[in-house]
Design brief:
- The chain is an alpha+beta fold.
- The protein folds into 3 domains: 81 residues, no CATH class; 67 residues, no CATH class; 68 residues, no CATH class.
- Helices cover 52% and strands 12% of the residues.
- The protein contains 11 helices and 7 strands.
- Strands 5-7-6 form a 3-stranded antiparallel sheet. A two-stranded antiparallel sheet has the order 1-2.
- The chain binds zinc ion (2 copies).
- One zinc ion (ZN) binds next to loops.
């Protein structure tokens, strides 16, 4: 009981109050799962680590949830933990990779480390690739969602952004580039500028219209479009 009380005390700490407010603000005071803004909101710690104080967790591990979703999240975590406990070590490794790949889908710009062959297998599973393909694509042991996505597109097709002028896929341009582009969209922009001679500023300005129209145009030339 003594320990529980001290945890409760910690949640009254000004540093926790500050962190809590930060997370609530990040989510506009809405439950990030069901979107409720009229229920009491709680900050869910998605895991606990020995020695960490409540406000020392990274923001992405703290979730802004209504009380109902918070209870649901805790139930799922309990079930997940029990289920993981039944697996063999190698299967847990796969699962770790798979979970990293899911996060990469949410935040493609974040690079993450592929620690082992087993983890690579899990990542590969999520993107319908082979572990060897993931390993070959690592850069100093790391990879991000943009690269995995591009590899999946090239291997299996699916909707992709294309150069509207010559039809080359953004994924292909991204995988082939050596400039160090951050993502396929950037590679497509560089392609339009360097290979088709479009004006850089006009390309960058028109880029934002793609979200509405599924294409971006400069001087009547569609330089970026979504594949059918
Ligand atoms: Zn909710
Ligand atoms: Zn082109």
């Amino acid at each position: 009981m003594g320990r529980q009380k001290s945890y409760y005390e910690l949640l009254k700490h000004p540093k926790w109050q500050k962190k809590r407010l930060e997370i609530l603000n990040e989510h506009n005071f809405e439950c990030e799962d069901c979107g409720a803004d009229d229920k009491s909101l709680q900050i869910h710690h998605s895991y606990y680590e020995k020695g960490l104080l409540p406000w020392e967790y990274p923001n992405e591990s703290l979730h802004c949830l209504c009380e109902d979703c918070h209870r649901q999240a805790q139930d799922w975590l309990t079930l997940l933990h029990r289920q993981i406990g039944r697996l063999e070590l190698g299967q847990i490794e796969d699962l770790l990779g798979y979970a990293m790949a899911i996060e990469a889908g949410n935040y493609p710009m974040i690079t993450f480390e592929v620690h082992s062959y087993g983890v690579a297998e899990g990542v590969a599973d999520a993107y319908h690739l082979k572990a060897e393909e993931v390993i070959d694509a690592l850069n100093e042991g790391q990879i991000d969602g943009y690269k995995l996505d591009a590899m999946q597109h090239i291997k299996h097709g699916g909707r992709d952004w294309l150069c509207g002028i010559c039809g080359t896929s953004a994924s292909r341009l991204f995988l082939d580039q050596t400039r160090g582009d951050d993502n396929p969209y950037q590679s497509l922009q560089e392609h339009a500028i360097n290979d088709h001679g479009l004006d850089r500023q006009a390309v960058e300005e028109s880029y934002h219209s793609r979200r509405l129209d599924g294409r971006a145009v400069v001087d009547g030339q569609v330089w970026m479009r979504l594949s059918d």
